[in-house]
Write a structure and sequence with these properties.
- By secondary structure, the protein is an alpha/beta fold.
- The chain has 3 domains: about 1-15 and about 270-335, no CATH class; about 40-265, Rossmann fold (3-Layer(aba) Sandwich), CATH 3.40.50; about 355-450, Winged helix-like DNA-binding domain superfamily/Winged helix DNA-binding domain (Arc Repressor Mutant, subunit A), CATH 1.10.10.
- Helices cover about 50% and strands about 10% of the residues.
- The protein has helices at about 30, 35-50, 65-80, 100-120, 125-140, 170-185, 205-210, 215-225, 245-250, 250-255, 270-285, 300-305, 310-325, 335-355, 360-370, 375-385, 390-400, 425-450, and strands at about 55-60, 85, 90, 195-200, 235-240, 265, 405-410, 415-420.
- The strands form 2 sheets. Strands 1, 2, 3, 4, 5 and 6 form a 6-stranded parallel beta sheet that branches.
- Helix 15 (about 360-370) packs across helix 18 and helix 16 (about 375-385) crosses helix 17 (about 390-400).
- The longest helix is centred in the last third of the chain and has 23 residues, at about 425-450.
- It is globular and about 75 Å long.
- The chain starts with about 30 loop residues before the first helix and ends with a helix.
- The structure holds adenosine-5'-triphosphate and magnesium ion.
- Adenosine-5'-triphosphate binds next to helix 3 and helix 13.
């Protein structure tokens, strides 16, 4: 795959970067964030209605959970009447986090690091220096622990006397957390005064995907329940669609301290996604270019929206794939058929890098891709005049193992197969290619008349 040359489009950087928006990244979150007005209003009301919050934010992969919470944190950190302090780096919900001790250490570490980023003179304060040294020793004890504080340089001075934490008395750790929260409420940080903190815990889908982790996550929430009721601390836990229903709701003790309903995030609308991409190009326009050229026309984004059911990450990945195939000098945005052929080329390239297919296997894949609905192995065997026994072992298994096709549905004994979501655009490939070729031969024909 070729790397796109964004300067050709009059852009400084890739507008289709799929990482979440966050404070301090090269794409400024306050400009690049689009939509979600309803959610912001709800969150603002919730945050104004009391001095603590515990909310589950749920949604499918890539729907925009992290970006939305990062934007909310950013607004409350700098642009509200009463401000709340937060770390720009979220706490990741990995398997090592699932104890109260690890959770408190991560919170303290991420807050300390953020304070240092905003005002490095504050870390000389007695409390912060003490906490810094404390974390430093704790984490050096277990270097495999992934920690926010590592390498921050906070508290490297050894003149503060503290206990070496072979086992951490919980009361002491909780005390440190309270002290830090009070410090944040009492002191100006980076020119701002804060009345509390937001704690953002990201990606419960990652641990929940691991076998046997579910009951550990449920246990974890039971263990940190009292901590979640700390005044002036606002907790946001992000997870998959079923996170609240499966993890929080069944435990009445835990549920009772959460906001009674999760926030369920839906995909941005088509218009919002087009707007998102336009905004990014405005932000990333080269200073020396008079205008930028959109790599693809809006109809391409609309089509990708339908194919990927609004999943913005997949849409942007597909746009990256399209542009990576674009070798000529760009003069105008690609129209639908041109874009779908380039995307198809990129996907075929990816398949051939993943798995080597014989001509017959490719032909079979093309047949499945061209079919408007999933097919049984028997249907494919009949269509292509093959032995059904061969189809299953020799053809299907290879494509299934390579993640190109999957079982779509089963009716009784009949199994229906189709493309996996990543390769869905291959449905359009042949038809777009034929239309383009026809257009080309029509053009050749017209030119030959002169
Ligand atoms: N409201 C928005 N405005 C502009 N861009 C957005 C918005 N929401 C999400 N994006 C973009 O969409 C992509 C996916 O967003 P994000 O990473 O926040 O989703 P997520 O739900 O946290 O994903 P995951 O399930 O992988 O954690 C990112 O590239 C992000 O920049
Ligand atoms: Mg995320």
């Amino acid at each position: 795959m070729r790397i796109a040359n964004w300067q050709h489009f009059g852009l400084r950087e890739n507008p289709y970067d799929t990482s979440p928006l966050k404070e301090g990244a090269s794409l400024p979150i306050q400009k690049a964030f689009v939509g979600r007005e309803k959610e912001q209003t709800f969150l603002d009301h919730l945050f104004l209605s009391g001095n603590r919050v515990c909310l589950a934010v749920c949604g499918d992969v890539g729907v925009g959970k992290t970006s939305m919470v990062n934007f909310h944190k950013f607004q409350w950190k700098y642009h509200k009447e009463q401000l709340l302090f937060s770390s720009r780096k979220e706490i990741e919900a990995h398997r090592n986090l699932l104890t109260k001790e690890a959770f408190l250490l991560e919170i303290i570490g991420s807050l300390l690091r953020e304070i240092e980023l905003l005002d490095s003179t504050l870390v000389k304060d007695e409390l912060l220096a003490k906490l810094g040294t404390f974390l430093d020793i704790t984490y050096k004890k277990d270097l495999s622990f992934e920690a926010n504080i590592m390498g921050s340089g906070i508290g490297m001075s050894r003149d503060t006397v503290i206990d070496k934490p072979d086992h951490l008395p919980m009361a002491k750790l909780e005390g440190y957390f309270q002290d830090l929260l009070e410090f944040i409420r009492r002191n100006e940080i980076g020119g701002y005064r804060y009345s509390g903190i937001i704690v953002h815990v990201n990606n419960f889908d990652v641990v929940l995907r691991e076998e046997d982790q579910r009951h550990r996550v449920v246990q974890f929430f039971g263990e940190i329940r009292d901590l979640l009721q700390t005044p002036n601390a606002f907790f946001l836990f992000l997870g998959p669609s079923g996170f609240f229903r499966q993890i929080i709701a069944p435990e009445q003790r835990v549920k009772s301290i959460f906001h009674p309903a999760p926030m369920m995030l839906e995909p941005l609308s088509k218009k919002e996604i087009v707007h998102t991409l336009d905004e990014r190009m405005n932000i990333l326009k080269s200073e020396t270019a008079q205008k930028y050229i959109k790599p693809v026309s809006d109809e391409v984004v609309f089509r990708l929206y339908d194919i990927y059911q609004g999943d913005i990450r997949s849409i942007m990945s597909a746009l990256n794939d399209i542009v990576s195939q674009y070798s000529e000098q760009v003069r105008s945005p690609l129209v639908l058929d041109e874009a779908m052929v380039l995307l198809g080329d990129a996907l075929w390239e990816r398949i051939s890098q993943t798995v080597s297919l014989t001509r017959e296997q490719k032909q079979l894949l093309l047949h499945i891709a061209a079919s408007p609905s999933p097919l049984t192995q028997k249907q494919v065997a009949e269509d292509l005049h093959k032995e059904p026994a061969n189809i299953s072992g020799y053809y299907f298994r290879r494509l299934k193992d390579a993640g190109v096709i999957e079982l779509k549905e089963q009716k009784g004994k009949l199994k229906y197969w189709g493309l996996t979501s990543q390769y869905l655009p291959l449905h359009e490939y042949s038809a777009s290619l034929i239309r383009l070729k026809e257009g080309q031969s029509e053009l050749d024909h017209q030119l030959s008349m002169f």
